[in-house]
Amino acid sequence: MKKSFFLLILLIASNLHSQNAEYNLKNGYVAEGYDVVSYFQQQVKKGNKQFTADFDGVKFQFSSEENLTLFKLNPKKYIPQYGGFCAYAIGKNGEKVSINPKTFEIREGKLYLFYNSWGTNTLEMWQKEDPESLQQKADENWKKIVKN
């Protein structure tokens, strides 16, 4: 009985870990706690702990109840690509790299976040280096990352 209980706990824990490993959860939230809905309004707004949602085993924060409601109606629309890791790094070399939540692009109705610090703005690099092929490569790399 103890062994089966232990195996069940281990299975649940590994499942939770694998879901969370697919998301950049710096500060405990996707997009470092920034409001993912606000990006689609071409704004960058810090979320408020008063307006939070859980989806796919991770937490999101929103700047308003209205944005929280919009997210709940269609969460998959607002989730950043590649789990909120830097889209350029995923495309260029398949690495999970942190982001600057104020550096983003909406492309074909999807949210892409980028690293921007110490004089390196990967959004600018993405835009200069053929974003379509980088996006395609990032999609391929992300499938490999998620499998592992």
Describe the structure.
With 148 residues, the chain is an alpha+beta fold. It has two domains: 57 residues, no CATH class; 69 residues, no CATH class. It has seven helices and six strands. The strands form three sheets. The protein has a two-stranded antiparallel sheet with strand order 1-2. The protein has a two-stranded antiparallel ribbon with strand order 3-4. A hairpin with a 2-residue loop joins strand 1 and strand 2. Helix 5 crosses helix 7. The longest helix has 20 residues. The relative contact order is 0.13.
Topology of helices and strands:
Elements: H1 2-21, H2 36-39, E1 48-55, E2 58-62, H3 65-73, H4 75-78, H5 87-93, E3 100-107, E4 110-114, E5 116-117, E6 120-121, H6 122-128, H7 131-147
Antiparallel strand pairs: 1-2, 3-4, 5-6
